[in-house]
Design brief:
- α1 crosses α3, α2 crosses α3 and α4 runs parallel beside α9.
- The protein has 2 domains: 148 residues, HAD superfamily/HAD-like (Rossmann fold); 61 residues, DNA polymerase, domain 1 (Orthogonal Bundle).
- The chain has 222 residues and is α/β, with parallel strands linked by helices.
- A 6-stranded parallel sheet has the order 5-4-1-6-7-8, with helices on both faces.
- The termini are close together.
- The chain is built from 9 helices and 8 strands.
- The protein is globular and about 55 Å long.
Length: 222
C-alpha cells in the first residue's frame, strides 16, 4: 500500500451525533406510543442505515408501524441535525493536515445522503472532500464494497492505496471487502475488541493517533 486517499465514515468517526439520533428516534417512538430507549442503546442500533435503526428500535414484524416511525423520525431529525452534534475533538485539524499532505479525502456513510451532506457542510466546512456520500437508492449499503470502490475510483486511486476509517464492525468489514486498509477509531460507537475482530489493521484513540496511523501506513507501504 502507498496511501494516497482516505475514506471516512461519518457518525461516530468524524462527528458525535448519537444524542441527536437518539432524541429524534425517541421522539418518534413516543409519538407512536412506544417505549423510548436509553441513549447508550443507540450505539448498537446505528451503523447499518436508518431502516435497520428503526427495526432495532421498534417491535418486530410490524412493517406499517416501522414505516410510520421512520417517516416521523426523518421529519424530526431534519430539523434537529445540529442540536447537539459536533465534530469530534481534533478532527477538523486532522483532516486539514491530511489534505495539506496531499491525501485525498472522502466521506461514505450509511446515513441518508441528504443528512450526510448537510452535516459535512455544516460541521466540517472548508475540508476539501472530493466525494461525500450517504445511503443512495440503487447503491448497496456498507459493508457491501460497491460504494467504497466507487469512491476510490472517484478519488483516482486503487483500493490498495486507500484507507477506510470507521468506528463500527460494518466499517471494518467494508474495508476488508473492498481490499482497503481499515483503521478503527475507538471514540465512536463500538469497542476496540469488535473492531479488531472485524479486521481493523490498526486502532486510534485520538485524532492525533489517527493522523499518526495514516502517516505510518503511508510511509511503510503497509
Amino acid at each position: 500500500m502507498h496511501l494516497h486517499a482516505a475514506i471516512f465514515d461519518l457518525d461516530g468517526t468524524l462527528v458525535d451525533s448519537l444524542a441527536d439520533i437518539a432524541t429524534a428516534m425517541n421522539h418518534s417512538l413516543t409519538l407512536h406510543g412506544l417505549p423510548a430507549h436509553p441513549v447508550a442503546d443507540y450505539r448498537h442500533f446505528v451503523g447499518e442505515g436508518v431502516r435497520v435503526l428503526v427495526r432495532k428500535a421498534t417491535p418486530a414484524g410490524d412493517e406499517k408501524l416501522q414505516a410510520s416511525v421512520l417517516a416521523a423520525y426523518r421529519a424530526y431529525y431534519a430539523d434537529h441535525l445540529f442540536d447537539q452534534t459536533r465534530a469530534f475533538p481534533g478532527i477538523p485539524a486532522m483532516l486539514a493536515q491530511l489534505a495539506a499532505e496531499g491525501v485525498r479525502l472522502a466521506v461514505l456513510s450509511n446515513k441518508s445522503d441528504t443528512f450526510t451532506k448537510r452535516l459535512v457542510e455544516g460541521l466540517l466546512p472548508g475540508v476539501p472532500f472530493t466525494a461525500v456520500y450517504g445511503e443512495r437508492p440503487g447503491v448497496p449499503r456498507k459493508p457491501d464494497p460497491t460504494a467504497a470502490l466507487g469512491v476510490a475510483a472517484e478519488l483516482g486511486v486503487t483500493p490498495a492505496d486507500c484507507a477506510f476509517v470507521g468506528d463500527t464492525p460494518v466499517d471494518m468489514d467494508t474495508a476488508r471487502n473492498a481490499a482497503m486498509y481499515g483503521i478503527g477509531v475507538t471514540w465512536g460507537f463500538r469497542s476496540p475488541e469488535e473492531l479488531r475482530a472485524h479486521g481493523a489493521r490498526s486502532l486510534a484513540t485520538t485524532a492525533d493517533e489517527l493522523l499518526a496511523a495514516l502517516r505510518a501506513a503511508r510511509a511503510s507501504g503497509a
